[in-house]
Amino acid sequence: MGDCCKTGFRWTGNPEGKETKIAGLDTYVSGSNKDAAILIVHDIFGWTLTNLRVLADHYAKEADATVYLVDFFGGEIVPPENLEDPEKAKHFDVGAFLGRHDKDKRGPEIFAAAKALKNELGYKKVGAIGFCYGGWAVFQLGAKGNNLVDCISTAHPSLLLTSEIDAVSVPVQILSPENDPLYTEDLKAYSNKVIPTLGIEYDYQYFPGLAHGFATRGDPNNAVQKKGLERAKNAVVYWFAQHLH
């Protein structure tokens, strides 16, 4: 993961949800639907970033679901100032951060949160969306035999392996920017070759002129990026509305 993962723009807005816990983890929750839930697996800026909380509110209202944005970094917060200050971003060690939050360490927590939604909170349908870091996680949640989620979505996924693509068994949506050094051209081609052969619904959406991170950290004051933000949000809302109801 590189500089594209630790830069971007902070959005304005007042999150409307509340903080609670699921599976023993701090969680932002928005919405009140008792049958349909969405689990967000965040990027490296974590569960407190206003951008993601505002998105969670949109998903809750527009897809009619209860949305859970869970802290999967054990309380570690990447300073949101990194989004706007290149000097601060330059000194943030992404490699060391990922070493503290690798798949083996955080995967069990992500699975525990999904299980809590299904088994403890009793949601009939659960979807999951992963941004950047969270991309690999939602593919694992949707793997054959797990029975944890009913559909997944991801925008500019990172750390994703071809074996994780091979194993997915629930409907998949991918929001793919033109410029993405992490969801590479080879991975894009592999996804578009393999997923249509798996017998599941597949929605691949390409965003020309946009870059890794656009769906959660794009600049709403830039016309092209704003259009991409809105298109991505609407695509996710439609996807979950279709598969969770």
From TrEMBL:
GO terms for molecular function: hydrolase activity. It holds the Pfam family DLH. It comes from the Eukaryota. Residues 26-243 form the Dienelactone hydrolase domain. InterPro entries: AB_hydrolase_fold, Dienelactn_hydro. PANTHER family: DIENELACTONE HYDROLASE, DIENELACTONE HYDROLASE FAMILY PROTEIN (AFU_ORTHOLOGUE AFUA_1G01900). This is Dienelactone hydrolase domain-containing protein. The lineage of its organism: Eukaryota, Fungi, Dikarya, Ascomycota, Pezizomycotina.
